[in-house]
Amino acid sequence: MKLKSLNSKNNNKFLINSLYRKNKVFTILMSLIIFLIILGLIIWLYFLYTENDYQFKGVFKEGLIQQPININPLTPQNDTDKSLSQLIHSGLLKQNKNLEFEPDLAQSLPITVKEADYLKICLKKDISWHNNKKLSIDDVIFTYNKAKKLDDLNPKLSFVRLLDITKLDNNCLKIKSNLSRNQLYSLLTVGIIPKHIWQEIDLSEQETDFSIKPVGTGMFQFDSLGRNKNGEIVFYNLKQNKKYYNKKPNIKNIEFSFYKNLENSHQALKNKEINAFSPHINPIFSLPEHVQNHKFNWNFYSGLFFNLKNELFNNQEIREALSLLTPKKKILKENLNYNGLIINGPVLPSSFFYYPDIEKTNFNIKEAIEILKRNDWDKNNNGFWEKDDQIIEFTIKTIDQPVMVEIARSVQEAWQSIGLKVKLITMPTQRIKTIISEKDFEVVLYGVLTNYNAGLFSLWHSSDSLNSTLNITNLNNRKINELLENAVIVTNLNEKKEYYKNFQKLISEIKPAIFLYNFNYNYLVDKNIKGIGVKAINQPGDRFINIENWYSQIKRVWR
Question: How far apart are CA 503 and CA 475, in angstroms?
Fold first, then answer.
């Protein structure tokens, strides 16, 4: 009996211990579940009542090479002027990171008033200039009236004369135009300038204080600048416009530092003295670890343009031979590190109007020589090609920028290799427009930033050939003129495409230029800077299209 009693006690003890252990596990599991529920609730409440705050720590610093000259959206002199103007000035419309048009100063995109046959566009309320004066409809009308007098100086203003803008009331405009939607909307992105400042000043005047310290309505405004003993600007600072009418940028201050050349700028970026720098179209062979290259597609190409008023280049056979002697593939590999795309005409592959079956001219020395011989050119005793006592001798002119000089030298060497007498002259960037305007060249290696419609018309229609930086080659061809005029006027896209197709075929036959490369735009930025988002641009200043969303850190803040 004692043994049985002892076993019973042991069984009870085991049962109690077993229940205790199970209860302990259950308690722990329940505690864990309750803890996870509470933790989940806390996390849910945290995200419910907080939000991401995109911040930019410190000052955004970018390196530039070109000095600003005239920071005015109607009369910019270089890419620095255009880039700064993009930050300081606003247009009725703007383009987003996908290059789609959207309202800026305007309340909406233009509204069609069908019964009256015009477009209506109204300003947003209570927008102020950086000097605290109110923006008005009169400022807009003043800007476009001024633009009509300056369209020969700024390709972006092509066709502005076809725009009829009048005042409907104190807040709205009436627009009449036969331009296509893209042509019209592009013109409506032009930065507006203040009438109360510029009505008494000549817009071509570059010495005025407002050309360097402009007043706009953009998200950034002029803050300060510094010059060295030679009068050159060494830094140019912008600050956030506290009264900006749209989303304010995360960046509070921007500092532009100016350098003598690409090498100094690269070194500053490597040493983290600046956050960003654009070598433009110059190839990138190596990058610091903390830097990312944002490659933007854009409508920029280089070409060798012939002066068709020149006796030598009025000869079709000379232009054909030189086209065959230009080693595009070799230059793309050895000089450009494949930073670009070989092209064969003035309409780029990214365009809806591009004709892919255009004739392609490949490098062929033998065929070039045969063309010269068929047209009675022979080598003289000095090894140069000659006909009727005329030697094939000419000069290539280009700007003194590394990539353009390298291309020009490679072309010069290729042309000289068969006995052509070719001299190369380089010059400062600011002189090239004068050279082209005065047609003071035989062959010029030049970079063209074009938009389809206005750009093609200005570059190739004979009406822009005299005393202009637009029709570079002096081309005067009746059929070309007709095709471009019809392409601009017609609104049906398929018809427009057909006109541009025939235009491209005819340009390929005439060969007024040797089309070389469609470049990428390189923008080197510190990897800590996020939110850039842009994939394609129309001009260098478009790298700032999405700048209001740039950030360097994210913090959670209470809603």
Answer: 13
